[in-house]
Amino acid sequence: MKRLFLSAVALLCILPTQAANPEEIRYGNYPTPRREIFLPKVNGYNVYKADLHIHSIYSDGHVTPDGRVTEAWYDGLDIIAMTEHLESRKREQEYLNFLKGYNGGTPKTAKNWWVYKVGPDEDGILADLNVATQAAVKQAAAYDMTLIPGIEITREPVEFGHFNLLFLKDANLIFDRDPLLALRNAREQGALIIHNHPGWSRNTNAKNEFHQKIYGEGLIDGVEVANSLTFYPNMIDRCLDENLFIASSTDVHGTTADYYGAHGLRRNMTLILAKDKSLESVREALEQRRTMGYCAGQISGDEALLKALFEASVKIELQSVDKRKKQRYYVITNTSSFDYTLYREKASGNWTLPAMSSIRVNFPQKMDLKVTVLNMWYGADKHPVVKFK
Ligand SMILES: [Zn+2]
Ligand SMILES: [Zn+2]
After folding, report:
1. Into how many domains does the chain fold?
2. How far is ligand 2, taken at its centre, from the CA of residue 61, in Å?
3. Is the peptide bond before 384 cis (omega within 30 degrees of 0)?
4. What is the tens place of the pLDDT at every residue in 155-195?
5. Which domain range does residue 380 map to?
6. Model's pTM, two decimal places?
7. What spacing in Å lies between the alpha carbon of 164 and ligand 1's midpoint?
8. Which of 85, 90, 182, 380 is an S-S bond match for 234, by CB 3.0 to 4.6 Å?
9. Ligand 1 centroid vs 152 CA: distance in angstroms?
10. pLDDT, tens only, 258-276
């Protein structure tokens, strides 16, 4: 009887949309599922999934800020930062054309929208650089997504580079013709600063004179070890050697569906180990360097954190023993959404341990239950070795 009642309720829920127009048959799967990323707690902290580098139509992206929130939610994220280019907003002329009626039908001419080399004239930057974050606030609240206000300093890449400023109070007070002073302005507002894509448009990731100066002054808190689908393994060494947090960001301008989804990939994310996802807790986690990076299946971080994530995700159980072959057979089970690539000494090939799956493997008798996790990185060529207990 109870089941009958539930079925009737289910039918009632479906009927109105079909009955509204009897000539239409509606296909599709509504509501759309969020693509969850299941990760266990690590060292007592929740592991939040964040993208700390996102563009919208308010600089040179193709998506609105509220669209960015929705996209990130369906991608399984918990936290995003809006980080428009400070010195480049190529859509300004389109907006002025669109709004020409507000100016008596004559479109104004955009100016000072591309000032990464020369700086603006005496009129300064005329756009309100806080608008992109403000435009995402309502949607972030509706989707319970943490929204970090930010901006990207966008300077000539060989000489200076790009820097994300997070937890900004007023993005309009950051610009200075001298990028060093712009970074100091950000620091004065209490911003955390990420050195973005250190190798982009350069032929090395190494620090130049400007970088020596800003790192030396303590103006850098984190480094992107991955940006889009580019991975910079030696930047993991820099982060760990200099106590900076690891970030892995999409820097998305188009959609994550076309950039990642079309290739069957998850988007890049910075994994943030925090007690909750409030701005205060997220900031505390970044300050304490409790982050890992995810890019195209590669996970980077401090060795102990990587091992803790792996050990919380993966369990091993003895299944059987073949005394004649001198082999023990184990089932290794991965309850997380990340795949792992494992190397066991003397095995004929690497083992793929897919997300939410088990694999049956053999260990010769007397061999330690030890694997190297090849898609985890704690340095340019360093992969954690995990010993199962
Ligand atoms: Zn950039
Ligand atoms: Zn960017």
Report:
1. 2
2. 9
3. no
4. 999 999 999 999 999 999 999 999 999 999 999 999 999 99
5. 308-387
6. 0.93
7. 8
8. 380
9. 7
10. 999 999 999 999 999 999 9
